[in-house]
Specification:
7-stranded mixed beta sheet; about 400 residues; globular; 19 strands; alpha+beta; Nonspecific Lipid-transfer Protein, Chain A; binds acetyl coenzyme *A; Aminopeptidase
């Protein structure tokens, strides 16, 4: 086994980290003219590197706030840009990075860590579990007709490219994050949106809906139209609405965009209502679905205490081999969460706890898969009720 050094990178080393990550993802290096923007993604002290003779693996995180069931916001470490050089994989480099990063996040008092996984087999062993589910739709724009009852909507504002960088953060902060699973977008996130606009061939368009008390919805999209006689697609990059009028107004707008055949709506929440808006719901067809945000409870007692519950108490024994302080028994009830010596009614690993945490998965389903071990059926029934949520969690922010 090689000797490795694992440490946080200095600002002048982040470009090498970007090169390692992008190489691992089969992406070209960031060009000189874009680096001034890209380097703003790097929150100081938050990029880890693994070295043998040189840098061979990296992972970074940035701070945000995350909405948990019940509406409270907790500190989130948003983990991204994970990559190991292809000639050094499967030698434990990622394992060292994950251990260092999680220990660091715990020392900083972070409650949760979150990431989007390139492959679903990577992060479970480090305590991450798929905690939100997303689905995608395609609207046959030329044949789709809105139902007459859909609200007309209020005033719309087309945000020009010059105003984008200023308006987007304002509008996002005013409307989101509202539902469980959403997160704030700190200064270390916004350069991603700017890089996307620089790198995409098709113009990115933002339209804001104004309600009686200010912005209450927006859509960001781009249209891919290769040639005048080929079908063209409008891809919705973001659609957030906080009122029925905003929803109706923005959908009327989208259907009215000329020269478009198909509207693609990727990464939507499980309770997406778009098909209900059309006289023929099949004109808004579900095309795919799968895992969205992966969560890791970094501080299990703080994370469990932050969300709300309904029903009867249950005693859960959590095993966390990476952050061992989390291991132990917790009595979870609507009145609060406490460590306890009472006998365990459910036993599970910390990655399975992440799958329960936002209500995406039920304890009884995890038990069927052997991921939760229950003393009896009643403990499962109580856990199903305790962790259930009214609104399916959805993040809507990629990083
Ligand atoms: C949040 C994000 O940034 S997602 C992007 C993640 N990055 C990528 O997908 C880029 C391409 N892939 C890579 O860079 C690397 O293969 C990584 C980062 C996924 C894994 O790095 P490695 O250093 O090879 O991982 P490491 O050797 O520590 O593996 C730990 C364990 O996970 C397993 N593992 C790691 N990656 C994979 C994988 N892609 N598929 C299957 N198993 C994997 C290993 O086999 C090992 O299992 P073991 O403990 O049973 O022996």
């Amino acid at each position: 086994m090689s000797d490795y050094t694992v440490r946080t990178l200095r600002p002048e080393e982040t470009r090498a980290a970007s090169l390692v990550f992008r190489g691992a993802m089969h992406l070209p290096p960031i060009k000189d003219e874009d680096w001034a923007v890209a380097q703003r993604l790097y929150q100081p002290e938050r990029t880890f590197g693994v070295f043998d003779t040189e840098l061979i693996g990296t992972a970074r995180s940035f701070d945000a706030e995350f909405v948990v069931p019940g509406g409270r916001r907790v500190p989130l470490g948003a983990v991204t840009a994970v990559g190991v050089r292809s000639d050094r994989v499967r030698r434990g480099v990622l394992s060292r990075l994950m251990r260092a990063q999680l220990t660091d996040l715990a020392d900083r008092g972070t409650t949760l860590a979150g990431l989007y996984a390139s492959e679903a087999v990577i992060y479970g062993r480090f305590g991450y579990g798929p905690a939100t589910t997303e689905q995608s739709f395609e609207v046959d724009r030329r044949r789709a007709v809105l139902r007459a009852e859909v609200p007309a909507g209020g005033e719309l504002e087309l945000v020009g490219p010059d105003a984008f960088a200023e308006r987007m953060p304002q509008v996002y902060a005013a409307i989101a994050p509202s539902r469980p699973g959403m997160m704030t977008r700190p200064s270390h996130w916004w350069p991603l949106a700017e890089l996307h606009r620089r790198w995409t061939e098709n113009p990115v368009v933002m339209v804001v809906h104004h309600g009686p008390s200010g912005p209450d919805g927006y859509v960001i999209y781009q249209v891919d139209r290769k040639h005048w006689n080929q079908p063209s697609t409008l891809e919705v990059l973001e659609l957030v609405t906080a009122s029925d009028a905003a929803c109706g107004g923005l959908w009327r707008y989208l259907l009215g965009v000329d020269l478009v055949d198909t509207i693609k709506l990727p990464g939507r929440p499980l309770d997406e209502f778009a098909p209900l808006l059309f006289t023929d719901p099949r004109r808004c067809a579900r095309t795919e679905g799968g895992d969205g945000l992966w969560l890791r409870l970094v501080d299990v007692p703080a994370a469990l205490a932050a969300r709300t519950y309904e029903g009867e108490p249950v005693v859960v024994e959590v095993a966390d081999p990476v952050l061992e302080d989390n291991s132990g028994r917790y009595r979870i009830s609507p009145g609060g969460v406490e460590r306890t010596d009472r006998p365990a009614e459910l036993r599970l690993d910390v990655d399975a706890l992440a799958m329960l945490y936002l209500g995406a998965w039920r304890a009884s389903a995890l038990a069927t898969a052997g991921r939760v071990r229950a003393a009896d059926e009643s403990a499962l029934t109580r856990a199903d009720r305790l962790f259930a949520t009214e609104t399916p969690a959805w993040c809507g922010t990629h990083f």
